[in-house]
Amino acid sequence: MTLRRFTLLSLVSVFSLLACRAQTPFVNPVVLGKSLPPEVAHRVEVLLRQKAELPPESTIQISPVVSSDTAGFFTVMVAVSAEGKVSHPITFLISADGKTLAQFTKYDISADPRTMISDAGRPARGGPESAPVIVVVFDDLECPYCARFHASLFPAVTERYGDKVRIVYKDFPLTEIHPWAMRAAVDVNCLGAQSGTGYWNAVDYIHANASHIGEDQSPKPAAKDPKDAGKDSDKDDKTLPRANEQLDKIVREQAERLKLNMPTLDACIAKQDTTAEDASRKLATDLNLQATPTMFINGNKVDGALPIEFIFGLIDDALIAENVAPPAPYVVPKPATPAPAAAPAAPATTPPAK
């Protein structure tokens, strides 16, 4: 029989509270720095074997008692060994009278959720760095769901909240399914290094036109057969080299419009250094993100392209948590009621001939 997996997950429900039922008080209470009294250690072992279904040939090691930061409790470490394998030690709390065994998961919530995911160094829309709400979006410029989300997010959020909300995008190009997403991220970041306005203009344009990037956009000859008019045989014939060329052109045109340093931009585009984008992708992976778009509103994770009224509700809650009054409650506009159909006109009559 092999050693079963001995984890916090399997034990948390079992050991969250153990109240020993014996009516006879223990002779030897738990003492700091000492091993558990034999009677207490035996009760702990019986519990572990019954509830965790440990193999009968396993042995249980219980550490000497050490202090804890929970009032009325000490700490012991428990490890299980079998067939030459030893589990990772599991931390338990045990009461000073030896009658209660407990296991808790402790979380540090001292950090400000607003700053849990840094927006430093990223082009921003909306409010300043001191804005009470920071919205961080992990974006893929080739993702159709991101495009839909982007179109609903702007300008709705900035119009409703003004400088109370600061919005930044981080790169999470899903290169396995979106072949030009990394190129787009690098290109817009080359632009963003010189101009936040240029960055957002390019992001707006790419998201709005992503479905056409990679298509042959050259003028087509007139169809010889009138039946073929309006058909485009190359419309779905997208290529990666063509997409890359179009992306480069988009950011260059934006840079020229804003009179940016073109040699610097061209060098950045040509280099295609993905160091920053790879770091952003790693952060997304470390955060266990599975898809785009994923948004964090003052650290509160939200997945997918959601209705704008839902996003407004989360932002309102974040503002309240920061002691900032949100705008008046948002009311979803009702669809316009169609006008009643006009009564049919009376049939025209021909006057009788005179």
Summarize this, please?
Helices cover 33% and strands 15% of the residues.
CATH architecture identity of the largest domain: 3-Layer(aba) Sandwich
Q: What is the helix tally?
A: 10
Q: What level of helicity do the residues show?
A: 25-40%
CATH topology of the largest domain: Glutaredoxin
Distance between the termini: 115 Å
Number of strands: 12
Task: Write the element-wise H/E pattern from the N-terminal end onward.
Answer: HEHEEEEEEEEHHEHHHHHEEH
Arithmetic mean of pLDDT: 86
The CATH H-level superfamily of the largest domain is Glutaredoxin
Radius of gyration: 32 Å
CATH class of the largest domain: Alpha Beta
Number of domains: 2
- Assess the beta-strand content as a share of residues: 15-25%
Characterization of the model:
By secondary structure, the protein is of the alpha+beta class. The protein folds into two domains: about 10-100, Roll (Nuclear Transport Factor 2, Chain: A); about 115-215 and about 240-320, Glutaredoxin, CATH 3.40.30. It is about 35% helix and about 15% strand. It contains ten helices and twelve strands. It has helices at about 10-15, 40-50, 145-155, 155-160, 180-190, 195-210, 240-255, 260-270, 275-285, 310-320; strands at about 20, 60, 65, 75-80, 85, 90-95, 100, 125, 135-140, 165-170, 295, 300-305. The strands form two sheets. Strands 1, 2, 3, 4, 5, 6 and 7 form a seven-stranded antiparallel sheet that branches. Strand 11 and strand 12 (about 300-305) form a beta hairpin. The longest helix is centred in the last third of the chain and has 18 residues, at about 240-255. The radius of gyration is 32 Å and the shape is elongated. Residues about 1-25 have low confidence and may be disordered.
